[in-house]
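Repro case for the chain-ordering regression, as requested:
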Amino acid sequence: MQHDLAVRARGGDHDAFSELVDGSIGRLYAVACLILRDRDRAHDAVQEAMIAAWRDIKGLRDPDRVDAWFRRLVVRACYRQAKREQRRSVVELRVVSDMPPIVPGPELSVVDRDRLERGFARLGPDQRAVLVLTHYLGLPHGEVAEALDIPTGTVKSRLNRATAAMRAALDADDRPSLSEEGRTA
Amino acid sequence: MNDTRTPDRLLAAWFEAEAPASAPDALRTDIHRATAAIRPRPAWLARLRGNSMDVIVGGAGRRNSRLIPVLALLLLTLALIAGVAFVGSQQPKPIPVVVAPTTSPAATTPPASIAGSATPAPSTFSDASIDLPYPVTEIIVGDDAIWVSTGGETSRELGVSIYRIDPSTMDATRVVDEIPVQQASNHRTFVEYQGSLWVVEDEAARMMRFDGSTGELLGETPLGEQPLEPIAGLGAVWSEDFGGGTVTRVDPATGAVTATIAIPQFAGGGPRDLAIGSSLLWAVNPGVSTMVGIDPATNTVGKEVALSGAVLCGVHVAAGRVFAESCESASVPTEVVDDATGVSQGTYEGTIAIADDGTFVWTADYADTTTIKALDPQTLTYVGPSVDLGVPVSRLTSGHGYVWYSSGTNLYRISLDALPSN
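-- result from build under test --
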């Protein structure tokens, strides 16, 4: 089904392209939201990626890999959005995620969420992307490498560094502060 | 930290909880609306820009290996430039190929970046070139000049600037300075006719008219729902209304809309491209296999031509022939009919990026983006050797004794006499 839609879209069938987008956009939007931590910018990133996809749809060689292609375009668009945000942040500080508050599940306490939020905020977009693609989409390293346009070895090392950074953030928050140590001494 | 609190597990749970359940409807609507107004790039251009699956399949390792010949070519080119520079330093100074633009008294001041400081990428055959501040988006042949539009920082922020290029000296004068428009598409945005420049903006659904000498805004006309691809000839300026499914006719003297022409054959769809024939305005629509010719005397469809059924996206007229290009033109031949009779003349494989030199029609080659080939419009066969221009061609046309082409921000010209078309 998706193969047929991709073939028709490649031939210039806009309806087929729209149907393809409808089938993928939920996941793509979620990925962009997680990487960028901002729904407005995620909206812009996904829109920019899908416009690029339609513009270059004729260059699609393998219709079976249209999902991977969309993912790659969205990640690229997220990088661009993040760069723009870095430029803007010189005059416009945005430190709080606009993602709506969540009700913690049994695996995730409010404290965990706050720690994850803080740790994740310290990561660059490339490290966020590798974590999202690995732990949210559950992609194997090879597919993450394709989406990020980097070798598989780089995926592994980037994932290790990102995970270590998150672990450090969580561990740091677990340690008592100096003032607390002083009080207990 | 116990096992359930490892970063991996916590992240997976956090992502799952934070991820929105679905995309907002507004996003779907925005994408649908924006893409409906865009014509996809030809396959060769899409692949050239790196947004293609052949890059992604096999990952970065394969792409790196593909870069080897490119790097080798780059090194060779640099070595060649260095060699030429050395030889040049031993000889009298050659005629420069980069011509600094002049400024007409009434025009705005050209940006400093044009003033001969940048060196255009070398192109094998060009006899002159100029580097403009932004990528060239269109080359239009006028009665006594070549008109070139350039884009802006991004594909949407076109900030269209229009330059008048003297065909013989290649002096460039910026006539219209960065029109503050948002453009949802990469369609043709302007045309020159009877001394005026006509610019359409699809998102604001308007046509602006500028004085071709001074750049002064002479007027603005609301135009349908989504005006695209303006073209001029047969006594009028024409624009397709892609959203409204009609063709709009504009009086070149007043800028007023004089007719809104429905095309029943397109079943409510708008034309995707227009071309001026000897007596008819030709229009194609990707949803039907019928090309229509609009009679300017009656403002109605005067001729219907049944084609083979390919998804039609482009139409050009050259050498008495009408060339109807498929969106799938990398694999589907371009269909050719006689401009006067509408009778099929056959097909050929290639694009309709046409430069009509009076005898042959030059086409860019899908298989190799840096070459152009001469097509005999009578036999629809290629003649003579291909011409390797040395740079990827993004726009191609001909006029005033030259073939004109662009690559990125560079505009090049080749004398027709220098082309090996015989």
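Ordering looks correct now. The longest strand of chain B covers residues 381-388.
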